[in-house]
Each structure stands twice: as structure tokens, then as C-alpha cells.
Amino acid sequence: xxxxxxxxxxxxxxxxxxxxxxxxxxxxxxxxxxxxxxxxxxxxxxxxxxxxxxxxxxxxxxxxxxxxxxxxxxxxxxxxxxxxxxxxxxxxxxxxxxxxxxxxxxxxxxxxxxxxxxxxxxxxxxxxxxxxxxxxxxxxxxxxxxxxxxxxxxxxxxxxxxxxxxxxxxxxxxxxxxxxxxxxxxxxxxxxxxxxxxxxxxxxxxxxxxxxxxxxxxxxxxxxxxxxxxxxxxxxxxxxxxxxxxxxxxxxxxxxxxxxxxxxxxxxxxxxxxxxxxxxxxxxxxxxxxxxxxxxxxxxxxxxxxxxxxxxxxxxxxxxxxxxxxxxxxxxxxxxxxxxxxxxxxxxxxxxxxxxxxxxxxxxxxxxxxxxxxxxxxxxxxxxxxxx
Length: 388
Description:
Elements: E1 4-5, H1 16-28, H2 38-58, E2 65-68, H3 71-86, E3 93-97, H4 102-112, E4 117-121, H5 131-137, E5 142-146, H6 160-169, E6 173-177, H7 189-192, E7 196-200, E8 211-215, H8 230-233, H9 241-279, E9 283-285, E10 296-301, H10 306-315, E11 318-319, H11 335-339, E12 350-354, H12 361-382
Parallel strand pairs: 1-11, 3-4, 3-5, 5-6, 6-7
Antiparallel strand pairs: 2-8, 7-8, 9-10, 10-12
Helix pairs in contact: 1-9, 2-9, 3-4, 9-12, 10-12
């Protein structure tokens, strides 16, 4: 059976160049980057190269890039670390959107238990945050605002530059989770005007277990790990040298092909979307169809449970998702679609299709071909039996 992978927002396969370089580093660059001898300095050199490549992806200076274990840790350092650094100033209010990744939402919950006040910004059915809503939520005590650049479930892109300006007007710091945008669309920290930005390597064909946090020069964050002085004393622990190098390679490749690949994926996504909406009655796109990353569409299927549709598609060799991979295994409705104001059924009947480098028109056409029959069969199973 030919298998089709349409879950690239969950993770992406490693690029051959990434595998090749990581293999060489694992074999040859085994030194500890903190060691002063030759082996340690060789390891430090390859990390420095990766830091430069990662910085170039987002238009920053290498010294501002902090390597982490992934997007979740980067979000934690940004929100928790910046909040704790400002605690003595009396700024104990945090703001985020209601559709943030759980790495941000659960960090806010944890800080709320320790006395911070939190506010979640509402969204409408476009999935877009209104700058006026942020302005109304801000107070003089607001320390950090965190709004994701692109949503992991629906792909919508937020007006980050405008939101950051609003936050700065009240003296608050601004963090954006760019895990789903970095490597897919152009991201420039200076143009966005943010103070901190999170990334994750495995979302753009790098390895799992490594990410990065960009921190504006001069901004202080309290480390969440205590120990050695690695990463300019901001993140203790011996560096994941091979993983960091893999992220650097993936970042460099993404920088070179992002625009062209974005156009290709956008065309494939639109082909898939139009095919599904045209062939399957009772379907609709969730979120904005304009401001979104090129590879993502989230579609609701009336009178079909998303989990059943996901399983049926998998049996046909098609891998999709019902939302965030970090929430898999739960029957809870999507908190993103719920925050957008959709009814309970729609929050549980929606499928995310996220495309990637290996997907072709032939694969998209096959998905469009098998979906109508699958949906019709699932709907027939839920129809009430006719009365005698």
C-alpha cells in the first residue's frame, strides 16, 4: 500500500543532508564543547556554525540564539524566565491568546498558581487576534505577552508586528511561538519587533529534541535549569551537539528553498482543499483562508467524528491529524476550535491536513478520490434506522 503523509505540522522527516551531517558529527565530533582542548573546541566550532545558520533563518545575530531541547522548553524559558526576571518590578500579569500551544497555556496556569494574574485573548472564527483586544487586556502590571506566529492546528498567521507594538506601548515584553512558521515562511525578528521567538528543528526537517529561543540582546531571563554556564549561562547542561548541528543544516536549507517550496505547497493545499469541499458535502474550512502558512488546512466534516475519519484514512494509507500532536490520545475537543466559537460537534469533527516536501499532486488526487466514500460510509453508520 502506498502511504501518504499529511501530518507535517506534527513532525517532518529528516532531510538526507541532515542525516549525513549528524552522522559525521556523532562519529567524529564527540568532544564536550565546554572543554578547552582540541576535541572540545572542534565540537564548539560546529555548534557556532549551526548557531549562525539558525540565526540567519530568522534575521538575528548568532549570539542572541539560545539552543534548547525543543519548542516547549523555548516557550517555557521565554514566558517563565522573562516573568520571573520582572517579578521584583511588580509586573505580575501575563497575557496570551486562547489558541496558544499547551506549552504556553500550561506555563501560564503554573505561574497563576504562584500568584501571577493571567488573561487569555479571544479570537473570532477567523482565528485572528485583534490588536484592540490586546490593548484592552493590557495593564501597567503586564510583564509578558505571548502570541504564536502561526497556529499549529489551523495555520493562521497572527499580525505579530502590530501586536508587539501594542504590547510595547504599555512596557510589556512580547514573545512569539514561531514553531509552525520558522522554516515555512519568511521570519525576521527585527521586522516582527518581538523580544523573544521560539523555534523547533523537527518542524522543518531537522531532528527532534532540539530547538532554539531567540532573545533580544540585553533582555534578561531567569534560567529554568540551574547548573553550568553553557549557552551564555542561560541554559545549563552539556549541549546536544549532533542535534544542534542537524538544526543548523535544516535551517540553512530552509532559508534557500522556503519561498519556492511555499508556493508549491500552497498550490497543493489549495488543490486538496478545493477537491474536498467540492466532492464531500457538509465540509468547511476552519480559520482564515488568507493569512495562513502555505502547507496547512483544517476542514470540518459534518456528521463525522474526527477520530473515526482519522482511523479510516489511516487504513487507506493516509496519515492526517485531528490537531496538536502534543494532545494526541485525548478525546477532548480542540481548544483552538472551541476558542474560535464553534459548536461542540465542530470542535470534534475537524481534520488537519499539513503538507510537506515529499507530497505530490498524485498523492493529493488520491486523497480527494478516497475521501468521499469514507465519509459517506461513516455517515451511514450514524443514520437513525428507518421506522417500520
